[in-house]
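Quick note —
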Amino acid sequence: MNYRREYTTEKVITPGLSKDIVNKKLTGVCAGIAKHYEYPRVVVRVAAIAALIFLPVATGVAYVVASALLPSHRAY
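Predicted structure written out below.
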């Protein structure tokens, strides 16, 4: 039996969903979503534009609400 334990001094903190103000185009919502879910930023932005074309009111309201409610983080 091995009773040796491994202790580290590093804290692993996974950031929550937030706006990315370093890689932003408008407010950083799409860049923050891409960073959180580990997708390319271009894919999320193209999906947001496609959603804006097909569902303009719902997408616009969702973007404004996300822009107002999500916290801003400079670095991850």
